[in-house]
Every structure is written in C-alpha cells, then in structure tokens.
Amino acid sequence: MSFLNDLEPLKQTALADLTAAADLAALEKAKGTYLGANGKFTTLMKQLGTLTKEERPAAGKLINQTKVDLENAMAERRAELESKAALPKEPTDFTLPGRRRSFGKLHPLTQVSDDIVRAFRKIGFAVAEGPEIEDEFHCFDALNTPADHPARDVQDTFYLSNSGTNVSSSPGTESGRKPSLLRTHTSSVQIRVMQQQPPPVRIISLGRVFRRDNADATHNPTFHQIEGLYVDKNVTVGDLKGTVEFVFKELMGSDVKVRFRPHYFSYTEPSFEIDFSSSLVKKMGKDWLEIAGCGMVHPKVFENVGYDPEVWSGWAFGFGVERIAMIRYGITDIRLFYENDARFLNQF
Ligand code: DAH
C-alpha cells in the first residue's frame, strides 16, 4: 500500500501548482505534469495492478476521487484565467456612456406614400399594382387616348428599343411587335385592374412613372403618382369630391379646401383639375394650388375593359406624390428627393 501513502501529498502539490498557474499555458503545463499520459498522477494510478484483489476497490475509489478533485480544480482555474484573459488590457471606465446606434429613416416620399395609403385604407380602398414597363394598349388605347395624342410621341415618352411582346396582328407596327414603353402615368393600372376583376372596384395604385422631361426644380424624368379608381352603380361627382376632400384633410390638415375646375382628359367625362388651398399653400404665397386630375370614367374606357357603361359608373383621379411632399414639407426643389444626401433626408 506504500504508493497510496504518496497520494495525498501528491494531490496537495498538484492542487497548489494548478491554482498557482499564472496563465492558460502554465495551466496546460501543470495538467501535463500530473494528468498527462506520463504524468505523476497517471503513473501512480498504473500501480493499482500491484495491489491485492481485496485492496483494489477501496484504493480505486480513492484514486478516482483524487482525480476528480484535480480535474475540478483545473476547470475552476481555467475559467478564472479565461475570464481574466477576456478583460481589456487597458484600464477601462465602465461608467462611460455606450456608443449610440444611428437608425435609418424612411424616405420622405415613402412617408407621404404610407400616409396616403393609410388614408385610403380607412375608407375601404385596396392597393393594386401594375408594371412600370407597359404596352400602348394599357397606357393609352384602352384609356381612350388617341394615336395622335402628344403623350404618345417619342419625344415625350420613353419607348424601349428591341422589346415588346410578339403579336401576330399588331396594327401600325412593321415588325409585328407591340412597342413597350415606360408608363407615363399610373392610369394604366386602372385598365389592368378592371380587366382582372368584375365591378365594383375600389383601388388605389402607387408607383413610379416616366416622362421625357428635363430635370429642373419642379420636373424630373421619373416621379411618383397615386391613381384612384372607384366603380359601382350610381357613382357621382359628389362621391369623388367627398373622397378627395377626406383624403387631403387627412394628409394636409383639417383647414384644407378643395375646388374642381373643368378640364380635359380623354379617359374621363366630365374631367376636372383639383386645386386645393390650406395654410401650407398660403405660406407659399398662393391661394390655390393645382394638385390632381380626375373625372368620371369615360364610357369608352368601360367598354374597352368589358364593363357595361349603362350599368356601371365610376370616378378616377391621379396625382403626384412629390407634389404633396413638397407642399407638406416646404421643399422647393424636386431633385432633392433623388440625391440621397443624408443632410436632406435626416430632416424628415
Ligand atoms: N393620368 C393623369 C396624369 O398623369 C392624371 C389623371 C387625370 C388620372 C385624370 C386620372 C384621371 O385617373 O381621371 O396627369
């Protein structure tokens, strides 16, 4: 039993060594010294075979317990050393304020668009979508816009070269291709929606439109529009005016006044331009500001999508999102919206 007498002193030295290890490397070294394949403790354990059968169980238990004690001591010291190693090397003031994260913001046009959608949702309008690359049928023909209308001129609209769907009977196109173009207004979505569903219809559609304009303070070749379409039985201009008034009050404040001026659009009859007045408009030194186009859906448009104009009536309108945002925030140059200058965007 002589070697068992060595067990306790060996354990004490080992514990002292492990606890004294100054860093993780020293700890690994101490581990090797005692618990490694040729370590002092391992060597001791190997002598278990020299004991008699009767002596073995008690001795084995003692040895195992010692081993567990050493391993525990080592794990404890390792945890201590590891957390020490994770501490900053330099003296640190933990009371200093943390670094603030700067959050991004929604673009002012997105904010205005969200508000417009929210206002229309309150009165039961759904949001419809349509493609930015359109064909002449949806953008013009179905909207009763004649072939000689200026909007159809290549000087005014971006036609896409080498594109378009192949159609066998496309009048007026030599190649038999139906020309594609970047939509000039969101009114094309009216047609797509009516083609897809029977009346009644109550939708708005919001998106980007394209025109061959030179950029200046009030024009840009691409901007955003909101289209509205309402089709049901016995719809009147009164419904249109009430809706427009409600939405503009939601958007621009309760002092908003709206007036309709007779105008011409080929897809509405009668047609109007909408002017509105408010304290914001007065601030701009004006009494009224033209803001949108609208009217009662032309019977020809209904025929083009297969609705019976004797049964169904409706109104439509379209206005520019940038215009609304410029008035709301007092912005005097439309180009600021597209420059991605954080100094501008951070203000909203
Ligand atoms: N599409 C017209 C534009 O871009 C706006 C418009 C006018 C839309 C009358 C309509 C409407 O739906 O009925 O200027």
Descriptive overview:
With 348 residues, the protein is of the alpha+beta class. Helices cover 40% and strands 22% of the residues. The protein is built from 13 helices and ten strands. The protein has helices spanning 2-5, 7-20, 24-35, 40-46, 56-86, 108-122, 136-139, 187-196, 237-252, 279-283, 299-305, 321-329, 342-345, and strands at residues 126-128, 133-135, 159-166, 177-182, 201-210, 222-232, 257-263, 268-277, 289-297, 313-320. The strands form two sheets. The protein has a seven-stranded mixed sheet with strand order 1-5-6-10-9-8-7, sandwiched between helices. Strands 2-4-3 form a three-stranded antiparallel sheet. Helix 6 (108-122) crosses helix 9. The N and C termini lie far apart (86 Å). Mean pLDDT is 90; it is low at 167-174.
Summary keywords:
348 residues, alpha+beta, three-stranded antiparallel sheet, 13 helices, binds 3,4-dihydroxyphenylalanine
Topology, please?
Blueprint: H1 2-5, H2 7-20, H3 24-35, H4 40-46, H5 56-86, H6 108-122, E1 126-128, E2 133-135, H7 136-139, E3 159-166, E4 177-182, H8 187-196, E5 201-210, E6 222-232, H9 237-252, E7 257-263, E8 268-277, H10 279-283, E9 289-297, H11 299-305, E10 313-320, H12 321-329, H13 342-345
Parallel strand pairs: 1-5
Antiparallel strand pairs: 2-4, 3-4, 5-6, 6-10, 7-8, 8-9, 9-10
3,4-dihydroxyphenylalanine binds at residues 185, 187, 227, 265, 267-268, 293-295, 316-318.
